[in-house]
Design a protein that fits this description.
The protein is about 30% helix and about 20% strand. By secondary structure, it is of the alpha/beta class. The strands form five sheets. The chain has a five-stranded parallel sheet with strand order 4-3-2-8-18, with helices on one face. The longest helix has 24 residues, at about 345-365. The radius of gyration is 22 Å and the shape is globular.
């Protein structure tokens, strides 16, 4: 049992120091509320820096700034992942946000009328806990993957950095979403590529062209993703389950680009035969490498509270957990709108949560 002097009391603990956590911190600071942000990374922005080397954002810089600080680039430029990481670090410094890095939260539980947040040998007691993290925490690969020939190089997309990680020979990209498409195109100049997975569709224009700059910026991002596809509209409530289970359409790399790079479509991979990947049609692919672009599982097992559905996702409305007053989520895919995980959309969700916390603390003080 922890002694009182081992527990630090703070009104609000924000778990996660990415764009969601920093946005919550910005709005809590505007309300004058005391808080601390705990982040597992050694440096703010490292969750972006660790992604594959050639990654660029899908949204232009005009949409990549958080509240109070525009992104420092040409409005139509698509920032690199390192630029995004550096921007988040500069954002925290500019607004003097109290981020404690190198602190991985291992457990959140109830402690009477407050919450106990455990991070290594550090303990925090808080009236409010904001989980400011995406659900993409635990990379998922199919259970048959360990049965593949050990000579096959296997990487999950979260561990892929560049082509030098792979052996000579063919590559199976398992997963046909945006990550799979971008990695497939990058590898196609060096390897024979097969790409398996369901067709998620694609947007019908180039995001870097004139149509993309006008249509994407003025209509899709600002209006459709941010105001039409929300939990407050009938169409938003219909679309949300499909987005959560299937994913979004291809954005930058389209099927025509993959075809031009001689990427070959393959059926779904369903198992192993003779140490090689077995496809749904009975075909066996003799490949030297597999990149699993198969997504993530929520990974909220460290939250020791009964607030999740059968899929491991929190039962919440606009990030507020009704059955646990004081527990909140920001950064989840389609938390409130399709824009909720996008840089330009997370600020609205963060402001909403900060308003709820500020109102509740004022009410508690008055009482």
């Amino acid at each position: 049992m922890c002694s009182a002097r081992q527990v630090e009391h703070v009104q609000t603990v924000v778990v996660g120091g990415g764009q969601a956590g920093l946005s919550v911190g910005y709005h809590l600071a505007k309300h004058g509320r005391p808080f601390v942000i705990l982040d597992a990374n050694e440096r703010i922005g490292d969750s972006w820096r660790r992604r594959w080397d050639s990654l660029r954002l899908f949204t232009p810089a005009r949409f990549d700034g958080l509240s109070g600080m525009p992104f420092p680039a040409s409005p139509d430029e698509f920032p690199t992942k390192n630029q995004m990481g550096d921007y988040l670090e500069a954002y925290a410094e500019r607004f003097r946000l109290p981020v404690r890095t190198g602190m991985r939260v291992e457990k959140v539980s109830r402690r009477g009328g407050t919450y106990l947040v455990e991070a290594g040998d550090q303990r925090f007691e808080a009236e409010h806990v904001v989980v400011a993290m995406a659900k993409y925490q635990e990379p998922w690969v199919p259970p048959f993957a360990p049965g593949l020939d050990p000579r096959i190089v296997q990487l999950h997309s979260c561990d892929y950095r560049n082509p030098t990680q792979l052996r000579e020979g063919g590559v199976l990209i398992a997963g046909a979403g945006n990550s799979g498409a971008e990695i497939a195109r990058e590898l196609a100049s060096r390897h024979k590529i097969w790409m398996s997975g369901r067709d998620v569709g694609q947007i019908p224009f180039s995001i870097g062209g004139l149509v993309g700059r006008l249509f994407l910026s003025r209509f899709v991002l600002r209006f459709v993703f941010h105001r039409v596809l929300t939990m407050d509209t009938p169409i938003g409530r219909r679309v949300r389950p499909k987005v959560l289970h299937i994913g979004g359409p291809l954005i930058r790399v389209k099927w025509k680009h993959l075809a031009a790079s001689e990427v070959e479509r393959a059926p779904k991979v369903v198992g192993v035969r003779g140490g090689l990947p077995l496809m749904e049609n009975g075909q066996v692919l003799d490949v030297a490498n597999i990149v699993w672009c198969t997504g993530f599982r929520p990974g909220f097992s460290w939250i020791d509270l009964p607030v999740f559905d059968e899929d491991g996702l929190p039962l919440q409305h606009r990030g507020v957990v009704a059955d646990e007053p004081g527990l909140y989520f920001v950064g989840l895919h389609f938390l409130y709108a399709l824009s909720s995980t996008m840089i330009h959309g997370v600020g609205r969700d963060a402001a909403y949560i900060a308003d709820v916390i500020a109102n509740r603390t004022r009410t508690a003080s008055a009482a």
